[in-house]
Amino acid sequence: MPRFDNQTVLVTGGAGGQGSSHVRAFHAGGANVVIGGIDAERGAALAGELGTRARFIRLDVTDESSWSAAVSDAESAFGALHVLVNNAGVQNPPATIENTDLTTWSRILDVNLTGTFLSIKVAAPALRRAGGGAIVNIASTMGLGGTAHYAPYVAGKWAVRGLTRTAALELGRDHIRVNAIHPGVISTPFIHEPAAGAVAAIADFYSPEPFAVPRLGEPADVTRLLLFLASSDAAFVTGSEYVIDGGLLLGPALQAETGPAAA
Ligand SMILES: NC(=O)c1ccc[n+]([C@@H]2O[C@H](COP(=O)([O-])OP(=O)(O)OC[C@H]3O[C@@H](n4cnc5c(N)ncnc54)[C@H](O)[C@@H]3O)[C@@H](O)[C@H]2O)c1
Predict the structure, then answer these.
(1) Is residue 74 part of a domain?
(2) pLDDT at residue 2, as a whole number
(3) Domain assignment of residue 163, given as a range
């Protein structure tokens, strides 16, 4: 695992399923960690458990002043900010486009897209002051295709890809790399609990069984890729997108015993 001694990392949604895995791994790798999020109880508990080099800050990613406060807090507590992980995200309750109200559309885009825009806008100067760093945006395999009943989520994650590439171009000469990760279906509350306004959870109707790696992803799977992208091991990687989905986007895998007979 790469080391992050003397580096400060801010993870949004840092108390969530994937976020907490990322926070723990960066901390174990020597980083100072700032857990940004709206779940104060879990965030403060995680910071307390990790002890020194960890702090929670209330951060609503949709609010620019909240971003300014979080970045200032990271810099004043730890001296500089080097790595920014835009992990906070929300899903819409499943509905066709015709049945999606504007409030839902805006709420999902506010968190998943505008939150990422505000993050880069406010935090980039801090990364520049640090002499450079890395930004990793957590998008989704849903940002690479279409998924019926998830238009707000799909559209927002597609847009994060454009933001990622544009930011990589704008910030590259300041030694700030910007990349995106596209997780498949990862075992977190995101898939085990219904979205706000939904009756069923994704795990109620999704099975990984047909795919090449027939299991749900674990947060640690994503964490390992994230740590690579955030580290100097990825010094020549920017504007890139990494799928981590156990073969979901490949489509169903053929079982060996049901494959074509040898000629
Ligand atoms: N779990 C999956 O299958 C999956 C698949 C692809 C992509 N993703 C993406 O991975 C990321 C992490 O999701 P997860 O699986 O850990 O889910 P999760 O629900 O456990 O975590 C999401 C976190 O985002 C936080 N959050 C929501 N709104 C926020 C706001 N306005 N400001 C700050 N924080 C906010 C939540 O409090 C929570 O801590 C999300 O961007 C999600 O879209 C998840």
Answers:
(1) yes
(2) 83
(3) 8-242
